Model the fold of this input.
Amino acid sequence: MGKVAGIPVYLDYSWFVIFFLLVWTIGFALMPAAYPGLSQFDYLLIGTVTAILFFVSLLVHELAHSIIAKRNGLKIRRITLFLLGGVSELEDEPKDASLELRMAAAGPLTSLAIALLFGLVWWASALLNLSQLIQAPVFYLAFVNGLMALFNLIPAYPMDGGRVLRSLLWRRNGDIVRSTVTASNTGRTLATIIIVFGIFSMFFIEFVSGIWFVLIGWFISSSSSASLQQTIAVEGLRGVRAADLMTRQVDSVPPEMTLQDLSDEFLRTKHTGFPVLSNGQLEGCVTMGDLRRFSKERWGTTKVGEVMTPKDKLVTARQEDTATDVMASMQRRNIGRVFVMDGDRISGIITRSDVLKAIEMREGVLSISRRAGALGGKISMTAETGMDFVLEQPTEKGFEWRAEYSGGEVKLVNQQPATTPSGEDVQRFTFQAIQEGISTVRLQEVATPLEPVGGSKRRALRTVTYTIAVARPVQQRI
Done:
């Protein structure tokens, strides 16, 4: 539709359904009972004007969230109005609980202010005995905005009230993932209650309103689960670079290859696409979809360079780019692959499956690792040749971790102290899987020279042992 305060505003196709439904409901179901005796045209006019102003109010509600986020350095992808209201799409989560609280509270407070404004206008119009064509819309808008403010304060994540709940929990425990899990569980519980009430209403109270309750409950439940997974994904990739995610061993094809030979390569490798390289430099990308655009009769004479997507239209990243930026780029452009570049040469590729593996490894294996490390623990895990994986352990003053590993299957790439999003100090080790086989990595805690004499005896030193099974990728997806 355009931009407001620099933020793009979109209408989903489902918006037209709710708009015409609101016009009919307000104009021909509600208003004749509240203001009888008007013409059909008057009711249509009231319904239309009220529906338009309601969505303007909804847009202002979403702008309140977005403007606060934008002023605090967050990027707003867009605001979308759809069947069940509106949503502000942020490219990243708030960095602290205080910002989350301000952003979440801004929407309901704005709706409450709009309700008070329309309430004053309605009171003045009634006092001055103005036309019902004025009184009717402003009364409804005062009522519905007040109702929207109260509804959004229900602690059902990811609604505003649920985000307020998450921010308060986050402020108390310092862990955004744990706070999101609690808020999400609360949201799904309330969503279930709303759905059950909606089903009951469909049979015993009013059928149409019951359907709306079911839709709202379903929306809250699905949005809560999706938002939780998004938070886990983003937080799980904190501190991870594109170089840690990428697959280094990438098959490629030359631009002079025919489509017939390309088809044979697809069958042989089970790939869905290839980067196109010329003298080691990236020229473009060709996929199965590009092949299918041409009839088989032309495969023998058509070259890959003629059908590929050129380099300037591909999404690329640098090795030092953060994994969260790579994931955001994939989501924003709805693509399944990002090429990692070292100058003009391709050094690796990141697919959606690479991102998922990294999230699973950090949020699954590493969380088990931490729980296992009280006095020692043994963990088995898998990795694919060419991929980097990260092991980390919490650190305490006077102690540090050292890595020992055997065999040529893995090698240590980097080690450094780091801080998790929840503020916990850890020591992070980045390994690369080199070749197929079984390797053992042992993280051994030792007392540092700064530790007072006898200090290491205050408690037992911890050891965590990893058995790493390195295997060749089943399928090198691009």
Observations:
- Residues 244-354 form a domain with the CBS-domain fold (CATH 3.10.580.10).
- Residues 152 and 159 are 6 Å apart (CA to CA).
